[in-house]
Design goal:
The protein has helices at about 10-25, 40-65, 85-100, 100-130, 145-170, and strands at about 1-5, 5. It is mainly alpha-helical. The protein has a two-stranded antiparallel ribbon with strand order 1-2. Helix 4 (about 100-130) packs antiparallel against helix 5. The radius of gyration is 23 Å and the shape is extended. The termini are far apart. Residues about 65-70 have low confidence and may be disordered.
Length: about 180
């Protein structure tokens, strides 16, 4: 079977070659030259720093509120460490066995609110993508030009974000 006059074997060779190039380039330490935008980057960092410090201080305060080793706080932007299903189930069982009823109810409410918020965001994305990705209502308004290419890239990104968020919906809930 050929797609765009490309055989499956040729496609596979291209994927392997591209992945090798990506691996080699990922090992390098890259330096970004922001050029004329450097003052804007510095300004953005200065503006972000107070927000980052407040967020870190709040995370430390919440971490200090944990009363036992079973209730360790993990900030929302901490890297996620994957664990086996058995480990996750054992941790979950231990967590619910050691918590009192009020704490379990509070945790269930928090997780439910997160789930509802995430579902709402998914519906929002889905409805926007129905217009942007699946209908020609917007694309008819853009003339053939460089803007059309930018719109196609935007449309693909919108669709990919919807897929990523949908996958995240079925992943583990934040702690």
């Amino acid at each position: 079977m050929k797609i765009n006059k490309c055989t499956r074997a040729a496609f596979e060779r291209r994927v392997v070659r591209s992945f090798r190039i990506w691996c080699l380039r990922s090992k390098k330490k890259w330096k970004i030259d922001w050029g004329q935008f450097k003052p804007l980057i510095i300004e953005a960092k200065v503006v972000r720093d107070p927000h980052r410090r407040r967020r870190e201080a709040a995370a430390e305060r919440r971490a200090g509120q944990a009363t036992s080793t079973n209730e360790r706080f993990v900030p929302w932007d901490a890297p996620v460490k994957l664990q086996s299903e058995e480990t996750a189930n054992a941790r979950m069982n231990n967590m619910f066995e050691t918590w009192d009823v009020n704490k379990r109810i509070a945790e269930a409410k928090r997780l439910t609110e997160w789930l509802v918020e995430h579902a709402h965001y998914l519906l929002y994305l889905r409805e926007n993508n129905a217009i942007v990705v699946y209908s020609d209502a917007l694309s008819k308004q853009i003339p053939r030009s460089y803007a059309a290419n930018a719109f196609n890239a935007f449309r693909e990104a919108m669709h990919q974000i919807e897929m990523v968020r949908l996958i995240a919906f079925w992943g583990p809930a934040p702690r």
